[in-house]
Design a protein that fits this description.
By secondary structure, the protein is of the alpha/beta class. The protein has seven helices and ten strands. Helix 5 packs parallel to helix 6. The radius of gyration is 17 Å and the shape is globular. 41% of the residues are buried.
Amino acid sequence: MIKAENLVKSYNGNQVLKGVSLKIENGGFVVITGASGSGKSTLMNVLSGLERADGGMVEYDGESLKNKSEAQLTEFRRRKIGFIFQQYYLLSHLSVENNVKMGAYLAGNNEYLSVISAVGLGDKLKSKPSQLSGGEQQRVCIARALAKNPEVLFLDEPTGALDESTGREVLNYIANLKRERGFTLIMVTHNLNVAEMAETVIKMNSGRIVETYKNEAQKSAYEIGW
């Protein structure tokens, strides 16, 4: 379980998180939504250990992040966490295989080729990012993150730069892989349609959680509006 209590975070005197508390069960599918500036991306960064809170605490199955050194936080993220961002952050001079291999080697995983096949890029192993479509580049990012065998996968607006058709395709891949692998999935998005895919939806406004609810039935990527 991921547990956060009374998280506070400020930038340049501006309080972005104002006492946020939540619990996320292992294996859950959670969407954090809210308008721009609501604090949702900052919350993701604090929950994942990318940034430190100014106050409060985050625990993973009782393991606190609060007093870890920078080296310990890096090791924690290497062991536990995968990230998929709106921007692809692929190395342009490396092939699909080698971009994904970098993620795999962080976790000592040599079976990264099956992950590339799982996202539908088995025939693109030697292609460079410039030779891929936007959707294919995002799938390389997904494969790179999953090649670490993360326990928790964080996604920050993963379809923000994609058209509708490609966005649905990418979300469908992510949802299918989550069902197969059982990792915890935490997605930040401003799109309430995407939230209909999640088990639990957390709405933020002005640095606070204003509503948490569960979807009675989860929709597929091809059933939601866009």
